[in-house]
Amino acid sequence: MNDMSLIVVSIVFIYLCIMLFIGWYASTKIDSNEDFMVAGRRLGPIMMAGTLAATEIGGGSSMGVVEKAYGNWGMSAVWYVLTMAITFIVLAFVAPKLRDALVKTVPEYFRRRYGKAPGIVTAIIMILPLIGLTASQIIASSVILSVMIGIKYSLAVVIVSVVVTTYSVLGGLWSVTLTDFVQMFLIVIGMILVVPFALDAAGGWGNVTEIVPAAKLSYTEGIGFKTIISLIVMYTASFAVGQEAVQRYYAAKDGKSAVKGSFIAAGVYVVFAFIPAILGVITYSMVQTGALDATQIMTNGARYALPTLAIQTMPPILVGLLFAGLISATMSSADSDLLGAGSIFANDIYKVYLNKNASDKRVLRVTQFTMILVGILGMIVALANTQSIIALLMFSFTLRAGGSFLPYVVGHYWRKASVAGALSSVIIGSISVLLVEKNIMSFFDLDPIFPGLISSAIVFILFSNIWPNKRDTTKLIHE
């Protein structure tokens, strides 16, 4: 191992140890299952913003955007993150409703609002994508480790899976929130540090713009308006019902904190969006001029663009900080997905159907065991994965959003929304997404999220009007 590799590995090793320490520290603050799942509902605006931003800035938003900017999207790759900012601005307006529901999971809301059938169907549909989301973040972290120290990708997958699962299981949402807060700074600072070194190596931005085709510098041409609109719809629908996101709103100390946290997180996304896109374009220009040895990229694919750029342009200490930041980005998403899956299984399947008299401590242990299991499953999926990071994320987002979005959000406002409407919406919307995604049927060449939401809306409104909610209220049933 050369001096650079030793320095880089040392920095990342220290970072990983700090994450494990935070997990242990958070575990000493856990007194109940509510502490574990929703951090005792004590998150203020700043902590809310940090954990919201870190949760959704993962492998797709960092390495994935660099990959897309290096490839066909160019600077228009900024929209992959800017559309997240738009989503959290929208969610800020419904944040108080989400917080005031005082539930721990999205399926719990469905169960207490509509009944057991919609609750269990939603629980199953939401657990499956969380495994895919966990795997996608493990993939991104493992790419960094494998490039960084030259180990096999499979070994890197195992290391990442063990670390992220361990600290997540130790402290639950409080652990995840504390690590997210630290990770958010590492993500942004680590990525920003690359820009001046990359620009210097490329001969300045003026030189980059002379080499890169004009279409690659456009903010819309590469990605296209259709994809931008699709991303906004997909993120809004998915984040609104995604356990890893709304669990933060449940954990806010009050409605105002939830609103402020959502707006601040959106601001972070706006600032961050341009950094990976710029780095992807710079990498492309350097490869064209031969200033960057693209052997690693050509051999292993464009997902290696950012690690390759950093290694060849930055001092070892800064490379170590960047890699710690990139691992932060991916692990801060993976830990939330693990916690989301564990919370749903323990709170909405085990406690409701398998052991109705389970103690609070028992439910907590089941949550932790499920997180370990999902970590293992995520690791297996990561080892077998051949899809791009963003493609895997998009499908996972779309699957859970297709049928759950309308009955979840509208259910907070529309008294008529009923069990018949919710159940049909979840089932039909999800099936529509799968049919279009797998090319079994086509829907005017639109992305799967659109037929999912449209079919979901039709049956939700129709059946809720035919068989309306007999309680004629949006209030939840006490359990």
What would you say this structure looks like, in words?
- It is a single chain.
- The protein has 479 residues and is an all-alpha fold.
- The chain has one domain (3-388): Up-down Bundle (Sodium/glucose cotransporter).
- Helices cover 79% and strands 0% of the residues.
- It is built from 20 helices and no strands.
- Helix 3 (45-56) runs parallel beside helix 13 (255-289) and helix 8 (153-202) crosses helix 17 (360-384).
- It is globular, with a radius of gyration of 22 Å.
- The mean pLDDT is 89.
The tally of strands reads: 0
* Series of secondary-structure elements, N-terminal to C-terminal: HHHHHHHHHHHHHHHHHHHH
Number of helices: 20
Biggest sheet overview? none
What is the total domain count?
A: 1
Low-confidence stretches: none
- Proportion of beta-strand residues: under 5%
CATH class: Mainly Alpha
Share of helix, binned: over 70%
Structural class, by secondary structure, is mainly alpha
Structural Rg: 22 Å
CATH topology: Sodium/glucose cotransporter
Shape: globular
User: Could you report the average pLDDT, rounded to the nearest whole number?
Assistant: 89
CATH architecture annotation name: Up-down Bundle
The end-to-end span amounts to 58 Å
For the record, what is the CATH homologous superfamily label?
Sodium/glucose cotransporter
